[in-house]
Amino acid sequence: MKLLALKVLVAAIEEGSLRGAARQVGLSQPAMTKIVRELEVELGASMLVRTTQGVLPTAQGKVLYEHALKVTRELGSAVDQISQLSGRMAGELSVGAVPLAVMLLIPETLRTFGGEFPDIRLKISEELYIAQLQRLRRGEVDVAIGGIPAGLVSGEFAAEPLMTTSMVVVARKGGQFAKATSLKQLLKAKWVYTGSKADSGYAKALFESHGMPAPPVGALVNSTLALLSIVSTGETLALMPRQIAVHPLAAPFISVVPVIEGGLDLTVGAIIRSDSAVSPAIRHFIAHLHRAAHQTSLHG
């Protein structure tokens, strides 16, 4: 199986047509069709279904597509690392970051890192609930910046602390829960949980740390905007970093609830896979993150 055939399959599925894939890969459409047919003969299964609107992957095509993505990503990463080890700091670095990091660390890091290494393309994506680390595990991002989960398995991930924050309880400004003074008063309120599962959210961790059961789930979101919209327009509660809760963009709509128990302390760090070679670009990027974190602490 040739690498070109995998690239062709990935392009065809992502573009939804052989014509679009041909433009992306730089081949003629007949050449693309020939490569796909040879791949299907080699594997003894159809990879694509031709329709009047383009192409769709078969079940077998979806399986190969997922593995082909990993192969092409790993190869691209290897090429970048070899280039960087040879002294040419170029390539692409993909970063997944929680909103707090996007707001406080990324701008300064982009400024200093981009100034020192202008030939490295930075791809930043916001990840609201970084604890599950799924994109990092799949190799879709090179570095994850977010709350370091308790019990992080060192054999799979390595984490480097950058800064600390407190996840505070927030409610609609002027709402019925805005002046609550204890978590016990909020046990029956509906909460907005973040992530893909309610059983691993910060709200659950906060209540359980004080010997109380997790509060009921009012909504489950994976978007900062969705969390702010739901809390600011109803009578649901949520946890978010204090720095975001008091930010001028959020403060007019939500209030930090003054519960006596306080918030949930959280260490924000840079997390990478332990089983992957750490490229010079990643090492330099983390160093610039530390500089940004230091600047934030000086002005915080």
Key traits:
D-Maltodextrin-Binding Protein, domain 2, two-stranded antiparallel ribbon, 300 residues, Arc Repressor Mutant, subunit A, 2 domains
Could you describe the 3D structure shown?
This protein is of the alpha/beta class. It has 2 domains: 3-83, Winged helix-like DNA-binding domain superfamily/Winged helix DNA-binding domain (Arc Repressor Mutant, subunit A), CATH 1.10.10; 91-300, D-Maltodextrin-Binding Protein, domain 2, CATH 3.40.190. It is built from 11 helices and 11 strands. It has helices at residues 3-15, 18-25, 29-43, 59-85, 99-104, 106-116, 134-137, 202-209, 224-233, 242-245, 280-299, and strands spanning 48-51, 54-57, 91-97, 120-126, 143-147, 157-172, 191-194, 217-221, 238-241, 254-256, 264-273. Strands 3, 4, 5, 6, 9, 10 and 11 form a 7-stranded mixed sheet that branches. Helix 1 packs across helix 2 (18-25), helix 1 packs across helix 3 and helix 1 (3-15) packs across helix 4 (59-85). The protein is globular, with a radius of gyration of 23 Å. The model has no long low-confidence stretch (mean pLDDT 86).
- What is the chains' assembly state? single chain
CATH domain topology of the largest domain: D-Maltodextrin-Binding Protein, domain 2
Low-pLDDT residue spans: none
- Rg, please? 23 Å
Going by helix content, strand content and strand pairing, the class is alpha/beta
